[in-house]
Design a protein that fits this description.
globular, 12 strands, mainly beta, about 0% helix, 7-stranded antiparallel β-sheet
Length: about 140
C-alpha cells in the first residue's frame, strides 16, 4: 500500500520537512519516496545514494543503493516494529532540481540523499514500501526562512 499526499508543496515555502512513523505488515522493506504533480508520480531521474548500519554491527556502514536515474528516492527501511523517518526536501515546488536528505530508524539506521534532476514544480508526494503493506502516519512541515 502507499500513501499519496497531494497539494502540499506551494510557493509559500521553499523547503519542507516530512516526518512519520511507519510499520511494515511482514518482514523488512525499503521505504520509497516519489514526487507528484497533478496527481501523478514522477518515476524517473532520481540520482540517489543510501547507507545503513544494523544495531548488531554499528561500526560497519553498508551501501543500500547508489545510482543515477532511479525510479524513486529511498528514505530507508522499516519492519514490523514502528520506525521513525524524516526527509528534508528542498525546492519541490520550483521548476528546478529538487534535493533530498533524510533517514530512518527501525532495526537499522539509514541515511539517504539525492536529487530529482527534472526541472518540474511538484505539488505532492507518494511514500510506499518496497514490499507488503505499511501502516502509520506522515506529517509535513513547511520551513520558513
Amino acid at each position: 500500500s502507499s500513501q499519496s499526499v497531494n497539494d502540499v508543496f506551494s510557493s509559500t515555502y521553499q523547503n519542507y520537512l516530512i516526518t512519520g512513523v511507519v510499520k511494515n505488515s511482514a518482514g523488512d522493506a525499503a521505504l520509497q519516496f516519489r514526487l507528484r504533480a497533478s496527481g501523478t508520480d514522477s518515476s524517473a531521474s532520481y540520482d540517489r545514494a543510501s547507507w545503513y548500519y544494523t544495531f548488531a554491527n554499528p561500526a560497519v556502514w553498508n551501501n543500500y543503493v547508489s545510482s543515477a536515474a532511479g525510479q524513486e528516492q529511498p528514505i530507508g527501511g522499516h519492519n514490523t516494529s514502528n520506525g521513525f523517518f524524516h526527509l528534508n526536501v528542498s525546492s519541490p515546488n520550483i521548476a528546478d532540481r529538487t534535493t533530498f536528505w533524510g533517514g530512518t530508524s527501525s532495526t537499522a539506521h539509514f541515511l539517504s540523499g539525492g536529487v530529482h534532476t527534472l526541472s518540474t514544480a511538484y505539488t505532492g508526494f507518494t511514500i510506499y514500501p518496497s514490499s507488503n503493506n505499511m501502516t502509520g502516519y506522515v506529517t509535513v512541515f513547511g520551513v520558513s526562512k
